[in-house]
Amino acid sequence: MYLSQYIEYTLLKPTTTEREIIDLCYEAIEHNYHVICINSSFVPLAAQFLKDSNTKVCSVIGFPFGAMSTQAKVFEAKKAIEDGAQEIEMVINLGFLRSKNYVSVFKDISDVKSAIGDTTLKVVLEISELNKNEIVKACEICVDANVDYIKTSSGFSKGGATLTATKIIKKTIKDAVKIDACGDIVDLETGMKYLEAGVHRIGFDAILSKKTKKAKTISYKTTA
Amino acid sequence: MKQLSRYIDHTLLRPTATKEDITKLCQEAKTFNFYSVCTNSCYTKHAKEQTLNSKVKVCSVIGFPLGAMSTKAKVFETTQAIKDGADEIDMVMNLGLLKAKNFTSITREIESIKEQLKNKVLKVIIETCYLTDDEIVKACKLAIQAGADYIKTSTGFGTHGATLNHVKLMKSVVVDKAKIKASGGIKDYNTASKYIQLGVDRIGTSAGIKIVTDK
């Protein structure tokens, strides 16, 4: 089994240049990563670069705060798809969730889902900000809204994925929605633990992987 | 010199902020006579409702905090925020374009947002913590050229906020062609007054109450 099919390779820092996006695309092609995850201003460039490859383009929207107006989230998503994105990753509205305004949390997600049709929708919960009840409730709303993936973290908060939270998510959603774990996952060993816990995707940051020099390990064949 | 509270955009931007937190923010702004409240765009409508019939203006952030959203999406978020009642828009500049020296795209983006505002105020956040001095100078010039009313130092979510040295540099470039808003890490009266002495016209802070009551 090659891990690369599970890898989502991200480059989201605000100072990212076009050159860095091109380099990201080259790396993704070289390692056969499943998808790259980028800010929406770079979607046309990345889509053009990756059009003859196996690697998909995922655009983040309302990112990383999730506190943009719902109408603007919908617009950003539709524009990203028009520009060539094959997946959309949105952040849940944490403030609405914290207030227990579940109707608004649901509407925010379902309006985006309706606007993008069959395009894969991932919703970032930002688990480092949530208590257990909020994680469970957020998962339930995502299932009701027919989301394709629940993602643990944006990578911009105080913490990333944890195995504990991943298990809570898995227990709540069972097989209704897939899980994408990311944030602080820097090596093969950790990635494997998450796959064993039932996640379907691992988010791996381009900058972090270079810092820790672990990038090459993640596309190695495993004995699993 | 105007009253201290009139320099302040009373700000609450953390992603976990609730509607109730925004209600409180608006109440405080009315009580302490702050110039405005500053919120994420999902709360613009609510902030407007809470400040109606008062002097308190409503600022909405756009493309916040990364500034890497597509231009058309930033423009749309702007028009929606205006419809929802925003009086001022604080947008984040696309820093990747600045680093790559793609200056035309930067001015085009700012101009297309300014076009939506007519007479309303546009502030452009340049996020000084990620920029060299040369980039700060260039960012100021581009923002002025594109019609920004204010150049704002920081989102408050970068590696650090405003510094006195950065604001001095900005002031030397901007002079009187635009105003400056200092934001990020301004938490007490002494700090706020240093920025005011340097010539900033607005301060973005969540510590407004402490600042005015410290004095």
From TrEMBL, chain A:
Under catalytic activity, the entry for this protein gives: 2-deoxy-D-ribose 5-phosphate = D-glyceraldehyde 3-phosphate + acetaldehyde
Q: Which domain of life is it from?
A: Bacteria
Keywords attached to this entry = Cytoplasm, Lyase, Schiff base
Q: What is its main location?
A: cytoplasm
Q: Where is the active site?
A: E89, K151
In the Enzyme Commission scheme, what number(s) does this protein have? Answer: 4.1.2.4
* GO MF, one example: deoxyribose-phosphate aldolase activity
Annotated Gene Ontology cellular components are: cytoplasm
Question: CDD domains per the record?
Answer: DeoC (cd00959)
Q: Where in the cell is it found?
A: Cytoplasm
The pathway is: Carbohydrate degradation; 2-deoxy-D-ribose 1-phosphate degradation; D-glyceraldehyde 3-phosphate and acetaldehyde from 2-deoxy-alpha-D-ribose 1-phosphate: step 2/2
Q: What class of enzyme is it?
A: lyase
Task: Give the UniProt family note.
Answer: Belongs to the DeoC/FbaB aldolase family. DeoC type 1 subfamily.
Protein known as = Deoxyribose-phosphate aldolase
List the source organism: Aestuariibaculum sediminum
- Lineage of the organism: Bacteria, Pseudomonadati, Bacteroidota, Flavobacteriia, Flavobacteriales
From TrEMBL, chain B:
Recite the UniProt keywords alphabetically. Cytoplasm, Lyase, Schiff base
- Report whether Lyase shows up as a keyword of the record: yes
- Localized where? Cytoplasm
- Catalytic activity reported: 2-deoxy-D-ribose 5-phosphate = D-glyceraldehyde 3-phosphate + acetaldehyde
Any idea of its EC number? 4.1.2.4
Predominantly, its location class is: cytoplasm
Protein's pathway = Carbohydrate degradation; 2-deoxy-D-ribose 1-phosphate degradation; D-glyceraldehyde 3-phosphate and acetaldehyde from 2-deoxy-alpha-D-ribose 1-phosphate: step 2/2
In the UniProt record, which is one GO cellular component term? cytoplasm
Question: Which residues lie in coiled coils?
Answer: none
**CDD domains hit by this protein:** DeoC
**What are the boundaries of the signal sequence?**
none
Q: Which GO terms describe its molecular function?
A: deoxyribose-phosphate aldolase activity
Sorted alphabetically, which InterPro entries does this protein's record hold? Aldolase_TIM, DeoC, DeoC/FbaB/LacD_aldolase, DeoC_typeI
* Active-site positions on this chain: D90, K152, K181
- Family statement: Belongs to the DeoC/FbaB aldolase family. DeoC type 1 subfamily.
Function, please? Answer: Catalyzes a reversible aldol reaction between acetaldehyde and D-glyceraldehyde 3-phosphate to generate 2-deoxy-D-ribose 5-phosphate.
Name assigned to this protein:
Deoxyribose-phosphate aldolase
Specify the species: Aestuariibaculum sediminum
